[in-house]
Amino acid sequence: MLEFLNEMLQKQYGEEIKGKIIDGYKTNRLVTFRVNTLKSSIKEIEEKLEELNIEYKKVSWSKEAFIINNVRENEIQELDIYLQGKIYLQSLSSMLPPIILEPKEGIDILDMAAAPGGKTTQLAALSNNKAHITACEMNNIRIEKLKYNVEKQGASCVYVMKKDSRQIDDFFSFDQILLDAPCSGSGILNFNNKNLNKHFSLELIDKSAKIQLALLRKAIKVLKKNQEMVYSTCSILSKENEEIVSKVMSENKLEIVPIEFEGIDDLPLLPTKIKGTLCVCPNELYEGFFIAKIRKL
């Protein structure tokens, strides 16, 4: 156990909840994917899985989300439905921010840290390919992955832009914004990884928090007045979540939009320091994830 992480979790959550989180770090998550409704239907995928004797479960909060019981990820990747872009391998937690944003048809949406494109293409599917989505990525390798996934998924409403979102010109304005910010990954740690201490550190948390703050400040600048955005991370540490949101809220006229959707009570939720935000506890089904919905006044 990383001592600094143990102390941070203890201070933020207390002994009992810290124990649940650590148990979650030790589990191997089941394979999950999302049906790409731009290329297929839930019925088609269900029939295909049944034909192949692949056991699946559904979740209460999304018709498109599937949990696979008896097949590994590499086996899913060999299926025609995967190769043709009819499904997209994606963690359940990472499907939540686009659903919570509720993308609308015919409007301008910014995805600020878009690669590899799971949430980008989900936004396209949720808006029936009728929104105008600008997907930003600054890394050369990651942007190629983003372009590949956008094309494979048939997300024709997406414009991919090579850009550090912190440098977006202030004269741009958007109706909706998804900021799934780069983070330490404290919600997706795998305690079975013996090299964990090489990848996860206090320095990474501090560096992530600085980037998150700059990105969220920029998001608020380019979000249209009276419109909404979603801020999310795959971290469960308040330093990258509530502290970032609170800081930006203190600088601007904003309000938290309480997150509500059918099936939310079925999520393994952690307590948060801002009412109306959501933090998912890592377990065998879910990655640790924080989400806040913010309206600019």
Verbal overview:
The chain is α/β, with parallel strands linked by helices. It folds into 2 domains: 3-29 and 92-296, Vaccinia Virus protein VP39 (Rossmann fold), CATH 3.40.50; 30-90, Sun protein, domain 3 (Alpha-Beta Plaits, 2-Layer Sandwich), CATH 3.30.70. The chain is built from 11 helices and 13 strands. The protein has helices at residues 3-13, 15-26, 42-51, 73-76, 80-83, 92-101, 118-126, 140-152, 196-199, 202-222, 242-251; strands at 31-35, 56-59, 62-68, 87-89, 108-111, 132-137, 158-162, 174-180, 223-233, 254-256, 269-270, 278-280, 289-296. Strands 5, 6, 7, 8, 9, 10, 11, 12 and 13 form a 9-stranded mixed β-sheet that branches. Helix 6 packs across helix 7 (118-126) and helix 10 (202-222) runs parallel beside helix 11 (242-251). The radius of gyration is 19 Å and the shape is globular. The mean pLDDT is 97.
